[in-house]
Design a protein that fits this description.
Enzyme class: hydrolase
Strand order of the largest sheet: 5-4-6-1-7-8-9-10
Helix content: 55-70%
Family: Belongs to the GTP-binding SRP family. SRP54 subfamily.
CATH topology of the largest domain: Rossmann fold
Shape: rod-shaped
EC number: 3.6.5.4
CATH superfamily of the largest domain: P-loop containing nucleotide triphosphate hydrolases
CATH class of the largest domain: Alpha Beta
Bound molecules: guanosine-5'-triphosphate
GO molecular function, one term: GTPase activity
Domain SRP54-type proteins GTP-binding: 282-295
Radius of gyration: 33 Å
Strand content: 5-15%
Structural class: alpha/beta
Length: 472
């Protein structure tokens, strides 16, 4: 469901690295991606518009300014709004079935032909009989369930319900095509009362499209039975059409909830959000297979998390902050391995990567034990300052100069000093340190080098570099 939202958001989170906070400008891309993802998933346009504007409002609001990173803040806002769109705003138990009625609690099933009404009746009966139901978050035990079909137009429908009732292990009330739907309902209710059923589920006739006769019939059944739950069953594959069907049923009947079936198919899932939005009624269940066990209670929060692939995105946010460019890191490592070709251009690239990985202190914390002792003696603030100064120097040099710093004349060094705001002595010191480092590299054993590379930031990005000795 809504796979694209995860993908698109991941991409946006990546581009947000390095941004200090969410602004009108940098959220624009994100909002466009969210919009596209929802439209691709078949969510209807008005719903998309409203959702996007809510995310925008929240993202630019107060809450975000104080949060850790823009990426996290953003995903947080989308998650919250998605939960609310899926029904989280209706309260924590809105998705639960309500059965708190003098038994039998009656559930009326409504929907188009082929939407999965009969199958869902069987699934629901089984689920209740097995004690899957909970009230206010607490399990409420196994139920004695009776099912009946008021579909007098299609005798096969009655047979079908009989079969699923047997599979579900619940009681089935026979009915026949020559009876009136209301008589069937009355008889079933009477039978359920006499036999102390906790729940009576009434399956109704479907039509190929919305027609007035069908609506009247189900309204009459509703008036007679006064069900505590009137569930609208809708096929997720209907896509945009689901909205119109949902609207018609919602106007004809006081629906209490929605069951979205066939979510296991090619359905893009967006219908769920639209239906929820146009009816204002909670999604209570989703059908995820043809089998009787294929029914899942709907949890807005969990579904939103699943849609967002929350774990993945959050770890991606962290990854993005480290912002290690894998290609770059591999190139550098290859050069360091060679030992001699590592010049100031590479050094500059490396500094940029280290900066992206976060401040020095957090970087040092990630070092393995053998390095952390030395690291603890480093003043990380000072180190960060030092790195910034080195970067200033390197940025003031040309690429050619960085490749062959030994050619730098004194007059040129003075100009670099002026350009970077760092005294000439410090430039000289840096250059000679770098020279030492280069010769050290040449001498260093390859295994030792690999170890050092791995230590630098616990570089996940270097994982793929099997070629280096000492690398796993
Ligand atoms: N894959 C999948 N198939 C489902 C699901 N729910 C129902 N189906 C299938 O959808 C088809 C129609 O389901 P029915 O339960 O017969 O539909 P109905 O709404 O009762 O149709 P009528 O009785 O004609 O009004 C059947 O082949 C079911 O097996 C589901 O969640 N997933």
């Amino acid at each position: 469901m809504l796979d694209n939202l995860t993908n698109r958001l991941s991409r946006v989170v990546k581009t947000l690295r390095g941004e200090a906070r969410l602004t009108e400008a940098n959220t624009q891309d994100m909002l466009r991606e969210v919009r596209l993802a929802l439209l691709e998933a078949d969510v209807s346009l008005p719903v998309v518009r409203e959702f996007v504007s809510r995310v925008k409002e929240k993202a630019l609001g107060e809450e975000v300014a104080n949060s850790l990173t823009p990426g996290q803040a953003l995903v947080g806002v989308v998650h919250k709004e998605l939960t609310s769109l899926m029904g989280g705003d209706l309260g924590p138990h809105a998705s639960e079935l309500s059965l708190a009625q003098q038994p039998p609690a009656i559930i009326l099933m409504a929907g188009l032909q082929g939407s999965g009404k009969t199958t869902t009746t069987g699934k629901l009966a089984r689920w209740l009989a097995e004690g899957g139901h909970s009230q206010n978050g607490h399990k409420s035990g196994k139920k004695k369930v009776l099912v009946v079909s008021a579909d007098v137009y299609r005798p096969a429908a009655i047979e079908q319900l009989k079969t699923v009732a047997a599979q579900a292990g619940v009681d089935f009330m026979p009915s026949s095509a020559d009876q009136k739907p209301e008589d069937i309902a009355r008889n079933a209710l009477d039978f359920a009362k006499r036999h102390h059923h906790d729940v009576l589920i009434v399956d109704t006739a479907g039509r190929l499209g919305i027609d007035e006769a069908m609506m009247q019939e189900i309204r009459a059944l509703h008036a007679l039975l006064k069900p505590i739950e009137t569930l609208f069953v809708v096929d997720a594959m209907l896509g945009q059409d689901a909205v119109n069907v949902a609207k018609a049923f919602n106007e004809a009947l006081p629906l209490t909830g929605v069951v979205l079936t066939k979510l296991d198919g090619d359905a893009r899932g967006g219908a769920a959000l639209s239906v929820r939005h146009v009816t204002g009624k909670p999604l209570k269940f989703v059908g995820v297979s043809e089998k009787l066990a294929g029914l899942e209670p709907f949890h807005p929060e969990r579904m939103a998390q699943r849609v967002l692939g929350m774990g993945d995105i959050l770890s991606l946010v962290e990854e993005a902050q480290k912002a290690i460019n894998v290609d770059e890191a591999q190139k550098l490592a290859a050069k360091m391995k060679a030992g001699d070709k590592f010049d100031l251009n590479d050094f500059r690239a490396q500094i940029a990567q280290m900066k992206n990985m976060g401040d020095m202190s957090s970087l040092l914390e990630k070092l393995p034990a053998q390095f952390s002792q030395a690291a603890s003696q480093v003043d990380s603030k000072q180190a960060s300052r030092q790195i910034r100064r080195m970067e200033g120097i390197l940025n003031s040099m040309t690429e050619m100069e960085r490749a062959k710093p030994e050619l730098l004349k004194a007059s040129r060094k003075r100009r670099i000093a002026a350009g970077s705001g760092v005294p000439v002595q410090e430039i000289n010191r840096m250059l000679s340190q770098f020279e030492q480092m280069q010769s050290m590299m040449k001498q260093m054993k390859k295994g030792g080098m690999a170890k050092m590379m791995r230590a630098m930031g616990g570089m996940k990005a270097l994982k793929g570099m099997k070629g280096l000795p000492g690398m796993k």
